[in-house]
Design goal:
alpha+beta; Sulfite Oxidase, Chain A, domain 2; Immunoglobulin-like; five-stranded mixed sheet; five-stranded antiparallel sheet; 8 helices; globular; binds ligand MTE; binds molybdenum atom
């Protein structure tokens, strides 16, 4: 399949669904001609892009994610798996690899590391350079603790705020994780590739079916903590998280952290891909197109908080320690307040070290939990003075929802 035609995730999944259904149909003795007649009829009836149910899409994508993602740990959105926050309670600062959310535009590819090469090319470097896995591993490395968060994390809250759903995976707040990432600073790799003074953008490209790729300006690529990562929490990067290498672009939207990198383009002109023109841009009544992008192009994530409690779940009536975490791409967190009265009164939560910029801070407070339905509201402030707003203007694709939310919880 030509990937240009399959840029839309729905089209991609549909094509895989068709493939899957065709294989099943063939096994049942259906002829190819008859199969296409059935497909066409179904398409006309249901509207092309939604011919199959989401369940059938998920089935069709077979195993879009390789690691086990049991429903106690993850909310299942097919190729996307949302971390369930309650599982971070009584865990440490880092999210273990087994619990880390997965966001795949298509599915995890299998990469043969013996054949794998990182190719760096384009007018922004002296010439084309290739590095093997061993060569990457032998370069000077660093380890940093940072989050990776999906730009759509919190998207589902647009529906409640505006009475209409934004397009895409309906994440609550589990599209984030913090890990210790080990790798080679991108600046080190780009130096070896002979990056020129005139270089402008760097665009890593994935080896997955859609070749997901997205440029960043050289200034971001050369920051000390922008890495070509090969280990996550002390283990070789797991397949679902980008084996053999991914980029880490701290503070930036999830999609900047390209997994399964096989190629990097270095340009002297601004670069564009579908992921900075059609998606990961703000489209909505408050935003104007910025051609060739359909709206303001996203870079940083935003300040957000989440509670380590089941979402709309149950806990027992007792005096309990409520815990949560807050993160900002702009700096450390200086204040976290919570309200058990839907904003009538606020108290301050205790912050717990470490408090790492572009990672998160943990905090807690005591709660005399009495039987009944409750909501817990949290708002935070970072060292740059950013606070969580009460609302976020609607954007069609539901990015960067960081407003204060009411976390529903029932005490029994
Ligand atoms: N090659 C490639 N890189 C990718 C993606 C992808 O689909 N393909 N998804 C991106 C998105 S949208 C996010 S939020 C992060 C998620 O990283 P994780 O799956 O390791 O949590 O990976 C990014 N990198
Ligand atoms: Mo994402």
């Amino acid at each position: 399949m030509e990937y240009e035609r399959l840029i839309r995730e729905e089209d991609y999944l549909q094509s895989r669904a068709d493939e899957y259904v065709w294989r099943r149909a063939k096994d049942l003795g259906v002829s190819r001609r008859r199969f296409f007649q059935i497909l066409a009829a179904a398409g006309a009836a249901a509207g092309l892009s939604h011919r199959l149910s989401p369940k059938a899409w998920a089935q069709a994508a077979a195993t879009p994610v390789i690691k086990p993602t049991p429903k106690e740990l993850f909310n299942d959105f097919g190729s996307n798996k949302e971390m369930r926050w309650e599982n971070l309670y009584e865990r440490g600062y880092l999210v273990p690899n087994d619990l880390f959310f997965v966001r795949n535009h298509t599915r995890t590819p299998s990469v043969d590391v013996k054949k794998w090469r990182l190719k760096i090319e384009g007018p922004g470097v002296q010439g084309t350079k290739e590095f093997s896995y061993d060569e990457v591993l032998s370069m000077p490395s660093v380890s940093v603790i940072r989050y990776v968060e999906c730009a759509g994390n919190g998207r589902s809250f647009f529906a409640a705020a505006y009475g209409k759903k934004a397009d895409g995976t309906q994440w609550k707040l589990g599209g984030i994780g913090v890990a210790e990432w080990t790798g080679v600073p991108l600046t080190e790799v780009l130096d070896r590739a002979g990056i020129k003074k005139s270089a402008r953008d760097v665009m890593p490209e994935g080896l997955d079916d859609l070749k997901v790729r997205r440029p960043m300006p050289v200034a971001k690529a050369l920051e000390a903590d922008t890495l070509l990562v090969y280990a996550m929490n002390g283990q070789p990067l797991p397949p679902d998280h980008g084996f053999p290498v991914r980029t880490l672009v701290p503070g930036w939207i999830g999609v900047a952290n390209i997994k399964w990198v096989g190629r990097m383009e270095v340009s002297e002109k601004p670069l564009f891909s579908p992921w900075n023109t059609d998606t990961y841009v703000l489209i909505g009544p408050e935003y104007k197109p910025e051609p060739p992008a359909k709206g303001p192009v996203l870079s940083n994530q935003d300040l957000k908080s989440a509670l380590e409690l089941p979402w709309d779940g149950e806990v027992s009536a007792e005096r309990r320690l409520v815990r949560g975490r807050t993160w900002s791409p702009f700096g450390k967190i200086v204040k976290v307040e919570y309200s058990l009265s839907q904003g009538k009164s606020w108290q301050t939560a205790k912050l717990r070290e470490p408090n790492i910029a572009a990672a998160w801070v943990r905090w807690d407070f005591d709660w005399e939990a009495k039987p009944g339905k409750h909501t817990i509201r949290v708002r935070a402030t970072d060292e740059k003075g950013n606070t969580q707003p009460d609302g976020v203007p609607f954007n069609q694709q539901g990015y960067l929802y960081n407003a204060v939310v009411d976390h529903p919880i029932t005490v029994t």
